[in-house]
From TrEMBL:
Gene3D superfamilies: Helix-loop-helix DNA-binding domain (4.10.280.10). Signal peptide: none annotated. This is Aspartyl-phosphate phosphatase Spo0E family protein. GO terms for molecular function: protein dimerization activity. InterPro entries: HLH_DNA-bd_sf, Spo0E-like, Spo0E-like_sf. It comes from the Bacteria. GO terms for biological process: regulation of sporulation.
Length: 58
């Protein structure tokens, strides 16, 4: 799951940058991609914290 999240984060980041260059930073699509990237990052960090906590229990 972590590898999938990393791939999704990278793809979304690339699309966001491309949208920002082509459409501007205040464009609705750019903002939507930025929010999606934030969501993916939050999910990734929660997953990493969960796995770290699980490893400490072992």
């Amino acid at each position: 799951m972590v590898n999938l999240l990393l791939k999704q984060m990278e793809q979304t980041r690339e699309m966001m940058i491309r949208s920002g260059v082509e459409n501007g930073l205040q464009n609705a699509k750019t903002i939507q991609l930025s929010r999606r990237l934030d969501q993916l990052m939050n999910t990734y960090y929660r997953q990493m914290a969960f796995e770290e906590e699980k490893d400490q229990e072992d």
